[in-house]
Design a protein that fits this description.
This protein has helices at 3-6, 11-32, 34-45, 49-62, 67-97, 103-117, 120-131, 134-145, 147-165, 168-189, 202-215, 226-230, 233-262, 267-295, 300-318, 324-334, 342-352, 355-369, 372-387, 391-408. It is an all-alpha fold. The protein folds into two domains: 8-218, MFS general substrate transporter like domains (Growth Hormone, Chain: A, Up-down Bundle), CATH 1.20.1250.20; 229-412, Growth Hormone, Chain: A (Up-down Bundle), CATH 1.20.1250.
Length: 429
């Protein structure tokens, strides 16, 4: 961090990040809660595990549609308004899930939940980019993505409690109503730009606007259109890397409980052990977000956490039968890199492309990358079915993580320095 930034107030860390954190925690819980409801829905709606897998994954197909528009509208129109609308729309479809009466309705509604949520991730990335200069951005984004392991830990007990006192219909209705409540908080607390915030100290506002104005002139690529950016090697390296990272993330979330149950652990222990990789992920997020901003080096803080995850998964797969306790310990360690790379990764993407291109380009990378969340579990399921065990499946997840780190080694950006700051017109340094 530059000396000029040391004395700058950072009230936006306590104002913007917590509201965005809880907003996406709610989104991620509405994505995951079907896993808790499926055993009850299979019985009531009369479908088999294959349909259950489709119902879980079809959200990611709907997720494709608003990724690029979400990033574009957040940059050109308003991230605040776009996400505010999305909160109401995805909440409505999430509640409708509790009213479905057959498989067709279930698939349609889950698809529409994905469509409504689709643009929220890139829009939030853009919003954070408006509030945190490059030398703070990896840390800010990693503090935000703490919502992913947090939601993974919180969703199961909350949904389990609702199911214990009611049924799956009310599970979706109650958890779908929460986005409507949070929309009120979002509307009051969030503004798009620092100059719109009356609560911001003048020196903090000047620092942000001066730094970000300089960054917009300090990109790896300048004067390229979105179409030209999509044709670059860097764009596709980012995209393929993001596909690879989705395999271990969703693979562990979906299949670790089954592995542990097969190993003979009681259901209470399975719940605790399943949460531990995500607890490890929280530590990884905090460490790599801080170190990435401190060194201003991004690529290494993408490659190291994914390398740890990949190596841990591969070694774990080799000891699943001979040393099961060691294998489980390594699976917990594998959680370190599941989300720790995200802040540095998205900061790299943003640094590579012009500001008006970076938003939709991040949406494109996220859209295609999240197909790993659809296809990864399918591949894992096929490997488990064909081999009658989890060794090959978790070996595949580890290789995917290592390949993601390998791909990032080919992306070249200038590192180790903040943007060269020149005061923008009308702002004094």
């Amino acid at each position: 961090m530059t000396a000029s930034a040391v004395s700058i107030p950072r009230r936006r860390f306590s104002r913007i990040i917590p509201v965005a954190f809880l907003m996406y925690t709610i989104a991620f819980m509405d994505r995951l809660n079907i896993g808790m409801a499926l055993p009850y829905m299979e019985k009531d709606l009369h479908f088999n595990p294959s349909v259950a897998g489709l119902a879980s994954g079809i959200l990611f197909i709907g997720y494709l549609f608003f990724q690029m528009p979400g990033g574009h509208l957040a940059e050109k129109w308003s991230a605040k308004k776009f996400i505010l609308i999305a909160l109401f729309v995805w909440g409505a479809f999430a509640m409708l899930t509790g009213l479905v009466t057959n498989v067709t309705e279930l698939l349609i509604v889950r698809f529409l939940v994905g469509v409504a949520e689709g643009g929220v991730w890139p829009a939030t990335l853009v919003l954070i980019g408006h509030w945190f200069p490059r030398e703070e951005r990896a840390r800010a984004r990693n503090l935000w993505v703490l919502c992913l392991p947090f939601a993974s830990v919180m969703q199961a007990p909350l949904s389990g409690y609702i199911l214990s006192v009611s049924n799956w219909h009310w599970l979706f209705v109650i958890e779908g109503f929460i986005p409507w409540v949070w929309a009120i908080v979002w509307a009051i607390a969030i503004v798009d730009w620092p100059h719109q915030a009356s609560w911001l100290a003048p020196e903090e506002r000047t620092f942000i606007e001066t730094s970000i104005a300089a960054e917009r002139e300090d990109r790896e690529m300048k004067n390229v259109t979105l179409g030209q950016a999509l044709g670059t090697k860097a764009a596709w390296m980012y995209t393929f890397a993001y596909v690879c990272q989705a395999f271990p993330g969703y693979g562990i979330a979906f299949f670790l409980p089954s592995l542990l149950k097969k190993a003979g652990f009681p259901i209470g222990t399975v719940g605790i052990l399943t949460a531990l990789p995500f607890a490890m992920a929280i530590i990884g997020i905090l460490v790599h977000g801080f170190l990435s901003d401190r060194s201003m080096k991004r690529r290494i803080h993408v490659m190291i956490p994914m390398g740890i995850t990949g190596a841990s998964l591969i070694i774990s797969s080799l000891f699943q039968n001979s040393l099961p306790i060691l294998s489980i310990i390594l699976l917990i360690i594998a959680g370190w890199g599941l989300y720790a790379f995200l802040g540095p990764f998205w900061t790299m993407v943003e640094q590579t492309f012009p500001a008006d291109v970076a938003g939709p380009l991040m949406g494109f990378v996220n859209a295609i990358g999240n197909l790993g969340g659809f296809f990864g579990p399918l591949v894992v399921g096929m490997l488990v079915t064909s081999t009658h065990g989890y060794e090959a499946a978790f070996l595949f997840l580890g290789i995917a993580a290592l390949f993601m780190a390998f791909l990032m080694s080919f992306v070249r950006i200038r590192e180790g320095q903040a943007a060269r700051v020149s005061p923008p017109r009308g702002v004094s340094a």
